[in-house]
Write a structure and sequence with these properties.
6-stranded mixed β-sheet, Rossmann fold, 2 domains, 253 residues, alpha/beta, 9 helices, globular, 5-stranded antiparallel β-sheet
Length: 253
C-alpha cells in the first residue's frame, strides 16, 4: 500500500525536442507503493514524460529524483544500476516473436545474472505464474491472445524484481473485460510486491479503478494543470479541461 515516502519526484521538469517544448514546470511526487497515473488527451506528452522518468529521454531543464538520487545528474554507472531496478511494460507488449514466453521473461536474467538455464527457467515460470500464465512457458507470442501477451509483458518487466514499474497504455487494444482484468492484476501485484507503479493512460475505467494519485498534462499549455486522486478531481477540480476529461461520455467512477 502507498506510503508517505517519495519514490519519484520531479522538480521544475521541462522536456523538449529541440525548441519545441513538450511539457514544462512539472512538479509532482509519486509516493512509494503508489499507483500513479500520467493522464491527458492525445499529444500531451504522457509517454515522453514517462521516458524521462525512466532514463530514456533527457530533460531540457529540471530534475528527476528516484528516491534521493537525481537521475540525470548521476554518474552513468549509477544510472545503469537504477535502470536495472526499473521495469517497463510497453503498449505493444514488445515481446520477441521468435522466443517462447519463458525465453522472453528469462532474457534479462541471462543478461545480468550468472544463473544456469534451469534457474532462469524456474524464475521465468514463477513470474509467468504471478500474472496468471502458469503452463504457458513454451508458447510463442503469436499463439496466445492479446490480453495474455500484455500479461507476458508484465511478467518480463517483473523479471528482475524492480522497485519501479512503468506501464505505457496497458489497456490499449483490449476489450473492456480483458482491460478490467488487467487493471485488477496491476493492483494485486502492487499489493503483493510493494512496487511503485506509474501508468500512462487516457482510459477512464483504468484511471478510476487503479490510481491512487494522478497528474493531468495539458497539450495546449504544455504543463500540468491538476494533480491528486482522480475521483476527488472529478468532483472538486474546477478546471473545465480536467472536468471534461474525467466526465466524458457520462462515465462515472
Amino acid at each position: 500500500m502507498p506510503q508517505e515516502t517519495p519514490a519519484i519526484t520531479t522538480k521544475n521538469l521541462e522536456i523538449a525536442y529541440g525548441d519545441f517544448v513538450i511539457q514544462r514546470d512539472l512538479n509532482f511526487t509519486v509516493n512509494r507503493g503508489e499507483i500513479f497515473v500520467l493522464m491527458g488527451g492525445s499529444g500531451c506528452g504522457k509517454t515522453t514524460v514517462m521516458k524521462c522518468l525512466t532514463g530514456l529521454k533527457a530533460p531540457s531543464k529540471g530534475q528527476v529524483f528516484l528516491g534521493e538520487v537525481s537521475l540525470w545528474e548521476a554518474e552513468q554507472s549509477v544510472r545503469d544500476e537504477i535502470a536495472r531496478n526499473i521495469g517497463i511494460v510497453y503498449q505493444s507488449g514488445a515481446l520477441w516473436s521468435s522466443m517462447t514466453l519463458a525465453e522472453n521473461v528469462g532474457l534479462p536474467l541471462g543478461e545480468f545474472y550468472d544463473l544456469s538455464a534451469q534457474e532462469i527457467r524456474g524464475l521465468a515460470s514463477l513470474k509467468l505464474a504471478l500474472v496468471g500464465l502458469a503452463g504457458f512457458e513454451d508458447y510463442y507470442p503469436s499463439e496466445i491472445s492479446g490480453g495474455m501477451r500484455k500479461r507476458a509483458g508484465v511478467a518480463r518487466a517483473l523479471a528482475m524484481d524492480p522497485e519501479y514499474l512503468f506501464f505505457d497504455e496497458p489497456s490499449a487494444g483490449l476489450d473492456p473485460v480483458t482491460s478490467s482484468l488487467l487493471d485488477d492484476l496491476i493492483v494485486e501485484l502492487r499489493d503483493s510486491l510493494g512496487a511503485t507503479m506509474v501508468m500512462v493512460t487516457h482510459e477512464l475505467p483504468s484511471i478510476f479503478s487503479v490510481a491512487d494519485s494522478c497528474v493531468y498534462l495539458d497539450a495546449e499549455t504544455h504543463t500540468m494543470i491538476a494533480s491528486g486522486n482522480p475521483k476527488r478531481l472529478k468532483t472538486e477540480c474546477e478546471d473545465p479541461k480536467v472536468h471534461a476529461f474525467l466526465t466524458r461520455g457520462g462515465k462515472t467512477g
